[in-house]
Amino acid sequence: MFKPEDEEQLIEKVVHINRVAKVVKGGRRFSFSAIVVVGDGKGTIGTGLGKANQVPDAIRKGIEKAKRDMKEICLYETSIPYKVIGESGAGRVLLKPAGPGTGLIAGGAVRAVLEAAGVQNILTKCLGSHNPHNIVRATMRGLRSLRTPEEIARRRGKTVEEMVT
Question: Are 127 and 94 in contact (CB under 8 A)?
Answer without folding.
Answer: yes
